[in-house]
Amino acid sequence: MPPLLELRNVKMYYNTTRGTVKAVDGISFKLEKGEAMALVGESGSGKSSLAFTIIRLLPRNVAESSGEILFYDEELGVVDLMKMSESEIRRKIRWKKISMVFQASMNALNPILRIQDQMIEPLVLHLGMSKESAVKIAEEALRSVGLSRDVLSRYPFELSGGMKQRVVIAMAIMMRPRLVILDEPTSALDVITQANIMNLLKELKAKFDLSYILITHDIALASEIADKIGVMYAGKLVEIAPADLFFRMPKHPYSQKLLAAMPTLREDKKIEHIPGDVPSLINPPPGCRFHPRCPYAIKGKCEKEEPAVKDVEGSLVACWLY
Ligand code: ATP
Ligand code: SF4
Ligand code: MG
């Protein structure tokens, strides 16, 4: 069976006054149908940039966007999203096949518009639906996320954070997409509401056979839902591993540091912090980008040659130790 999504050597660079920011720099991975991948990594490692690259929402200052983003669909066949025009993406892909819950999007709901108007706007405006059918779809989507139709007539300030996040998720699943990209969907919520939202995401995944790319700082939360984990460091994926294997045996030195830096409820372990800073993406370190912070760096090798990705007992790892 073909996967749902396959990235091959995808790059996306920004132009800035200080130089070219290589935010996504040669990313390859596959996502299967119904699979959830958590994308983790420190702030500024390029997670959101990768999400925008996949859904083809790029700002004006893009310097380069290249590679292949293959999407396998029953209706469309195999399409390369990189090669599609903006109008094709809008007609065939965005919201219908791939949707996104943006970072901090619950706070981006328009405060002076009722939920109904915000939900139906894209359906009426971009997809040419009648208001009546759009409202039906919005109602149905709200029901799927556990909200009643009364919410339609309310303003965002009349809803709790958790309810707003449900509205945003309802908007993402409204058109029955195959893939939903969720960028920090719970980071602004309290712990109990976070858990409720994660349960909702699990339910929706099973009910609609959805695939997810879940971007999060919270690896513990990721472990709740992820089938596999992708670790991003300075614009590159340094490890992709099945979730259970990743938590038992992270292979890349950066993954090991990331897990050691994660607080757990169960153990009283000492939380380590990762020494050094996330490197500049304008002039990233040569060789392995993690070498200035890596305790195992091999002198004469790691700072010169970029490690290739290898399959190490079921995990894909880019590190010279293997
Ligand atoms: P966070 O966890 O903080 O959300 P992230 O992993 O999502 O971080 P990105 O937002 O993708 O990281 O940013 C990656 C790099 O690209 C950063 O160096 C950031 O400053 C830069 N960047 C992001 N958006 C733009 C833009 N529109 N123009 C120029 N540079 C940008
Ligand atoms: Fe460390 Fe070298 Fe592996 Fe990079 S390639 S993570 S520097 S050992
Ligand atoms: Mg981000």
Automatic annotation (TrEMBL):
CDD domains assigned: ABC_NikE_OppD_transporters (cd03257)
Kindly give the PANTHER family that the UniProt entry links to this protein.
Answer: ATPASE AAA-TYPE CORE DOMAIN-CONTAINING PROTEIN, OLIGOPEPTIDE TRANSPORT ATP-BINDING PROTEIN APPD
Q: What biological processes does GO assign it? A: peptide transport
**Can you tell which superkingdom this protein's organism belongs to?**
Archaea
Originating organism: Pyrobaculum oguniense (strain DSM 13380 / JCM 10595 / TE7)
Tell me what topology the record assigns in the membrane: Peripheral membrane protein
The name on file for this protein is Oligopeptide/dipeptide ABC transporter, ATP-binding protein, C-terminal domain protein
The record ties this protein, via NCBIfam families, to: oligo_HPY
Q: Which UniProt keywords apply?
A: ATP-binding, Cell inner membrane, Cell membrane, Membrane, Nucleotide-binding, Translocase, Transport
Matches recorded under InterPro entries? AAA+_ATPase (IPR003593), ABC_Ni/Peptide_Import (IPR050388), ABC_transporter-like_ATP-bd (IPR003439), ABC_transporter-like_CS (IPR017871), Oligopep_ABC_C (IPR013563), P-loop_NTPase (IPR027417)
